[in-house]
Amino acid sequence: MHAPMFGLSALAFFLTTSWALPSRPHAFTESNNIYEYANPTWIENIAARSNGDLLVSIIDRPELRVIHPFGHPPSESEIHSFPEKVSCFGITEYKPDVFAVLAGNYTSKNGIVPGTTSLYSVDFNSGTPVVSKIADLPESEGGNGMAALNDNTILFADSWKGNVVKVDTGTGKSTVAIEHESLTPLSGAIFPIGVNGIKIRNGYLYYSNLSRATFNRVKISAETAAATGRFETLTDRATGVDDFDIATDGTAYIALNTVNTIAKLSPSGDFGLIAGSLNSTLLPGPTAVVVGRTKRDKGVVYAATSGGLAGPINGTYTEGGKVVAFD
Ligand SMILES: *[C@@H]1O[C@H](CO)[C@@H](O)[C@H](O)[C@H]1NC(C)=O
Ligand SMILES: *[C@@H]1O[C@H](CO)[C@@H](O)[C@H](O)[C@H]1NC(C)=O
Ligand SMILES: *[C@@H]1O[C@H](CO)[C@@H](O)[C@H](O)[C@H]1NC(C)=O
Ligand SMILES: CC(=O)N[C@H]1CO[C@H](CO)[C@@H](O)[C@@H]1O
Q1: Between 20 and 30 A from 219 (CA), which of 20, 21, 35, 304?
Q2: Ligand 2 surroundings by CB, under 6 angstroms
């Protein structure tokens, strides 16, 4: 139960054989690498559009980009660059084909500049993406993962303060929605990052906490996002945990950034490593995960990586951030 479910070579075999199945024609290239950027490029977050395009945010440049995974070969381009910012963080869809994106000033050398994060809207409905600012967030230290409570309310994780903030997309007003010890950074941690990724499923807010190595959930109000139940830690073995996604069957796929691995937490509570390993170059520094949402990529889990910038493979190897698909 605690051990990896299968090793790297078994996974590679699984990937190459499953890609060749006729039920999934032309969906992907033979390789499980969908797209790899130049080194250095830290992909921070990933979200899927309803047409299958993958939106990725870059943390070492203030860019939101798009990868077309079904192309031959897959291609990518820039959606928007935020010249008034240094980095891009979380992405979440809050209305059909309208995404919220966080951008602010973060560098791996100096960390976050408190109060520099802003929330933007990126609307794809007219064909050409229309970018507008929803709100500046001067009271937050910085924003990270995001989830939409409804089409007028966005929640984001302030990883450094260790709370969850809600933003009214109409007025731009932001207020702290959830505070609890399990959201806070552990004092003395190497990375003082508390709540990291967040997702809302079946009335629960699921959240990871990097410095505490936990994956947690709490029942929240559908109107106010206030916690209405007890805070449950589902696993405290999520070393290096970053962002995650939850499939329709309730399985959570969780990026373990510093150990170069993707873990899986089943609805029954079984936790195991499913892809990558500490010294493998399959997934250097996975940061976020998204489950495919079209017919063509049903059952596919995409992982985005930092290229190992926070912790090079065997202490030396880094590469450009990439998006990898597995089944
Ligand atoms: C944030 O970064 C932008 C773009 O580099 C810069 O113009 C701005 O002064 C920075 N703000 C702070 C408070 O560091
Ligand atoms: C990974 O690499 C490190 C540094 O080279 C080494 O100490 C460690 O034993 C390796 N671990 C595994 C599981 O191969
Ligand atoms: C580190 O890993 C990279 C990628 O697998 C490999 O090319 C390199 O030889 C390794 N270096 C050491 C010192 O193990
Ligand atoms: C591993 C770890 O830090 N676990 C902590 C998770 O958060 C709860 C508080 O909600 C602590 O009690 C655990 O020690």
Answers
A1: 304
A2: 278-279, 314-315
Percent of the chain with pLDDT over 70: 91
Q: How far is the CA of 88 from the centre of ligand 1 (A)?
A: 13
DSSP element (H, E) containing 31: none
State whether the beta carbon of 112 lies less than 6 angstroms from ligand 1.
Answer: no
Of all atoms in ligand 4, which is nearest to the CA of residue 211? 3
The bridge status of strand 301-305 relative to strand 286-291 is antiparallel
**Cis check: omega of the bond before 138, within 30 degrees of 0:** no
Q: pTM for this one? A: 0.90
Residue 118 Cβ inside 6 Å of ligand 1? The answer reads: no
Residue 245's SS3 state is: strand
DSSP string, 50-68: TTS-EEEEETTTTEEEEEE
185-241 pLDDT, tens digit each: 999 988 899 999 999 999 999 999 999 999 999 999 999 999 999 999 999 999 999
Which residues approach ligand 3 with their CB closer than 6 A? Answer: 281, 313-314, 316-317
**216 phi and psi angles, rounded to 5 deg:** -140, 170
Which residues does 9 contact at the CB level (< 8 Å), separation at least 6?
A: none
The tens digit of pLDDT for each residue in 260-318 reads: 999 999 999 999 999 999 999 999 999 999 999 999 999 899 999 999 998 899 999 99
Distance CA 220, CA 226 (A): 5
Give whole-number Cα distances, 238 to 80, 138, 290, in Å.
Answer: 33, 31, 18
- Taking CA atoms only, the protein residue closest to ligand 4 atom 8 is 182
- How far is the CA of 153 from the CAs of 36, 97, 133, 171, 224, in angstroms? 33, 16, 15, 10, 9
Q: Whose CA is nearest to atom 9 of ligand 3?
A: 317
Instruction: Residue 53: count other Cβ atoms within 10 Å of its Cβ.
Output: 17
* Ligand 4 centre distance from Cα of residue 192 (Å): 15
CB atoms within 10 A of CB 314: 10
